[in-house]
Amino acid sequence: MLEVKQVSKVYENQRGVQSIDFSMSRGEIVGFLGPNGAGKTTTMRMITGYLNPTQGTITIDGLSMADHPKKARQKIGYLPETPPLYPELTVGAYLQFIADLRGIPAKEQKSRIGEVVERLGLQGRERQVIRSLSKGYKQRVGLAQAILHQPDLLVLDEPTSGLDPKQIIEIRQLIRELGENHTVLLSTHILPEINTLCNRVLIINQGRIVLDGQPERLAHTMGEAFEVSLEVKGPREAVLEELRGVPGVAGVRELDGEAPKPESNAADSAAESSVADSPDATVKVLVTAAAEEDIREALFYRMAERRYPILSMKKESLSLEDIFLKLTTSEALEGAAGGETASEEVTPDA
């Protein structure tokens, strides 16, 4: 559906984005992340045809944005961070204006407007002046104009910015529903939205794509070790010894009970040791794999063979927040060390 090949944008001898290269398939909802000034808005404006790239190509459903800009734009719905609304118009008049602007045939306009009004919960507000709407409803009208012409690709820039919690939930649900029939590129600073809505994540920093992957596999993509936290019922030393002997295990670290409390005396320590080595004791550990392979089955079968019940097992991984900070901070530090400065995202004068 969307192909961005080696796209760069330079502003007055300063690079805005550099060699951006990614594609999107039909039906994907892709989260687009990056710190301020990383190049997100510049990239989206080039995808939607508002800016021309300095080099590279952008293709929408096989149509080059450079060679067939009008036809390519017809396949795109765009919601900027600030919805492009006319506050003095009513909701109905505004959508009628957009229908004319988009070249929707006159005989289809009434039914098409009725469909988006119902889909976005705008019934009964067709005669309301846009100026008088809450921010949540203005976002709904902005989404309505973006999907009115039934585009194949939706580009949404911070669609929940500034909304209250109830409005955020409503807009997220709308985006999830839109993703059933559209390809969606979603830019947001709210990282939980990515886990909630997206089946893929792009992270951009200093004008470059630094990560592309599925949210649940980002730690694996970054080469992070596979780790599992366990709570096992059984004698402490025996459990630890068995876990260390499981093929593929690189390390076992006890999560608590590693040392006696400072105020405990020798008798207390002996008593604690006796309890830890009893069959009814429980041991909490973090097990690290030697490679990135999943070792949970091997752990389960070894403990089952030794009759040490696993009371809980949880795969540990970096959160999206951790990954985002790790990538953008390390990239920024590397740029500073090399005497480079992060390019700012410049908005050219209209």
Automatic annotation (TrEMBL):
It comes from the Bacteria. PROSITE patterns: ABC_TRANSPORTER_2. Keywords: ATP-binding, Nucleotide-binding, Transport. Residues 251-275 are annotated as: Disordered. Transmembrane segments: none annotated. Residues 264-275 have a biased composition (Low complexity). Residues 2-231 form the ABC transporter domain. One of its GO terms (molecular function) is ATP binding. PANTHER family: ABC TRANSPORTER, ATP-BINDING PROTEIN. Belongs to the ABC transporter superfamily. This is ABC transporter ATP-binding protein.
